[in-house]
Amino acid sequence: MKLSIIELAHLLVDDMFIELTDSKLGQGAVGFVFKGYVFPRTQTRFKQKVFAAVKMSYPMPQKSMGLLEEAYRMSKLNHPHIVKLIAVSKLSFQAFRPMIAMEWLPGGSLAEYFREHIRKRGNDAPPVYVRDIVDILRQVGEALKYLHESRDAAGNEISHGDIAARNVLLTSTKLQCKAKLGDFGLPLDFGPRLPIPWLPPEIVSCLDRTRIQHRPESDVWMFGVLGWECATLGAEPHYQRTVDEIQQCFTWPDRGLHRPPSCPLDL
Prior knowledge:
This is Protein kinase domain-containing protein. Its main location: membrane. It comes from Ascaris lumbricoides. One of its GO terms (molecular function) is ATP binding. By secondary structure, the protein is α+β, with helices and mostly antiparallel strands. The chain is 27% helix and 16% strand. It folds into 2 domains: 5-103, Phosphorylase Kinase, domain 1 (2-Layer Sandwich), CATH 3.30.200.20; 110-249, Orthogonal Bundle (Transferase(Phosphotransferase), domain 1), CATH 1.10.510.10. It has 6 helices and 8 strands, in the order ββββαββααββααα. The relative contact order is 0.12. The model has no long low-confidence stretch (mean pLDDT 86).
């Protein structure tokens, strides 16, 4: 995909309007994510700054282009359960390390929620209700439905490519909240960084995964794995299994992801 500055013009701001903090939130396929701020273009901008999750690419041309492509994809989406892109640094098209700012969700990721719940288990951990898990999955499902019904500028179908608890962000540290799908920056050519345990058989079994096109059907498979993550309160799918072992699991009735004893049959 060839991008020009015009395609993101409505989101471009000078570097001075995006501020990074020392708080690193994580890292993905194309760059690091920091807690930061975005300042509106007004005289009182320092009083009106808003929290943001600021992603900066790794210092490599391929990663820089990957981040700009992620920004372009996000700029075309508008849904209550998809993280919004709010600003792109003007220097992104000149510097070696582009920087984008996304809306801040204070609850962190669903994966982080599960880790914290397990850490507190037996002490102060609140109960996790099936109805809350189902509601989170419903919200992600609505985001995917919108995404899969959308088309890019060339009329091609759109998919996410990394549906997992780590990419479901929450507006609150309580599970009864709004969930949003984030991180649109994982193309299939990132080799060993691919989330193999979440990927469908047609991609995992391919000898050259860089030539496989991720389609909406692949997202649906990954959504099923996300459901298993939720049912197990954050367990890692296919934990410590090799790629060959995962491929063998695909021939089993439950695809190697057993139903937890505490999970209701209807779920």
